Amino acid sequence: MGKSSFLYFEKxxxxxxxxxxxxxxxxSMEDGQHWAVLFPSVxxxxxxxxxxxxxxxxxxxxxxxPFATQYQNVKMAAKEVSSYRDLIAHVSQKYTFTNKDNLxxxxxxxxxxxxxxxxxxxxxxxxxxxxxxxxxxxxxEKVMNFFNLExxxxxxxxxxxxxxxxxxxxxxxxxxxxxxFLMDEPLTGLDRETREMFDQVFQQIVDSGIQLIIATxxxxxxxxxxxxxxxxxGVMHSLTKSAFLENRSTNLAVDSxxxxxxxxxxxxxxxxxxxxxxxxxxxxxxxxxxxxxxLKNVTWEIKQGESWSIKGxxxxxxxxxxxxxxxxxxxxxxxxxxxxxxxxxxxxxxxDIKKPIGFVSSDLSRFFPRNQTCYKVILSGCFDxxxxxxxxxxxxxxxxxxxxxxLQIHKFANVxxxxxxxxxxxxxxxxxxxxxxxxxxxxxxATQGMDENQAGRFRQIVNLIANRPMISLLYVSHxxxxxxxxxxxxxxxxxxxxxxxxx
Length: 503
Ligand SMILES: Nc1ncnc2c1ncn2[C@@H]1O[C@H](COP(=O)(O)OP(=O)(O)OP(=O)(O)O)[C@@H](O)[C@H]1O
Fold this sequence. Notes:
The protein is of the alpha/beta class. The protein has a domain at 261-502: P-loop containing nucleotide triphosphate hydrolases (Rossmann fold, 3-Layer(aba) Sandwich). The chain is built from 14 helices and 19 strands. The strands form 4 sheets. It has a 6-stranded mixed sheet. A hairpin with a 2-residue loop joins strand 18 and strand 19 (497-502). It is globular and about 75 Å long. The chain starts with a strand and ends with a strand. The relative contact order is 0.12. Residues 250-255 have low confidence and may be disordered. The structure holds adenosine-5'-triphosphate (ATP). Residues 111-112, 114, 155, 159-164, 289, 292, 294, 312, 314-320 line the site of adenosine-5'-triphosphate.
């Protein structure tokens, strides 16, 4: 390797989660370079990052980190324990924040329950608990300022929206002043305006002396990137960014995916949904926390069988609106809301509300107990619990397995859910939602972090389900191309207000 070598893989063989992922894998990054890496599947992408982080089994070859040599020599001379990892920051799609007891045991509806979240740190507290591994350009003040976190500094971590959480995750990682920053799809979950602003964010990070490896989509390769590595057929094809973009065919169409219709037909027959006269109706709905108004006078009706998208900037109130529908928000009772023929607050139980709803969100995965397998997570849909705690019938067990086979995730049945790749987790959540024959399927940024082929397959299946006359769909995404074609109605929120409704 040359003198200016920063990081390299030499004929590396890697095993991860029981699978051999790489054989004779080569990759080389020089000082001053910033890489975008493209992987066909989440499994390979996660294995690549985890290998750099030393979390996989390298059974062959070497991974070398010349960028850390000087640092480690200095530490060794001072007789201090150190690792090359001290110089790496990583923001994955699976980031979680812990609470004050250092346990990650938040439960889902806690987010919407303003009084119950005292075990969660505020944004400012969280940033001050981080013990930077290195001193450098980034400190709390710079991070707060640069990522627009001042206004949120006293908010509990639990209450942050998806986009707010991501800004915080990137800012938190920078506090370590790493030399190498690994980012897994840093733009997903961000609204269009924020995504556009991120070119400046990357530039600032690079200007502070940090080198980047970003897993991303071709359409989202940031300006600062100098090189692109595309992993195909076991080989990382490396090019400068300009050569890559020149070579690239403009046809980025996603493969159309073969769906096994015979299994689907059988599964769809199990989706036997009753008819509701008053499906979902909201009239003048308001949600606020103290002075902060999150939803303002929202009036909206969804008829059975309709398919809607909900759009709006990060923090506009989309997830809050959904939380009212799925029975997770305590302020639902104080509002004029009809769900499935019943007015909220007239004696119905939370289970009555949840029963007709299948819910899939990018956020949901982190709330399942860590001992749950993929199979159990799917079965927990039968009981609307976050994990399986009851005995299941043979019919339920068979149905869960049939959905897994149809969705091609059956080989993960006994894998712990939190260890499964992101796309497998999402298909599990989809199966968990569908196993109980929902009348309303809600997908809240559900394909976030999935690769384009898997996201395409997810949309295709959602399309097939939502095309059934008795089933309604609510779909939230920051990307127009991600919205399934069955969706023909949209609600747009800005700062909690409905600014557009095409229904
Ligand atoms: N319990 C709470 N107390 C105070 N503020 C809250 C609470 N819960 C949510 N919020 C705030 O309400 C706003 C709306 O959040 P919500 O998650 O509904 O936004 P969103 O439109 O889904 O955003 P994103 O696209 O980023 O997911 C955010 O600014 C969030 O910080």
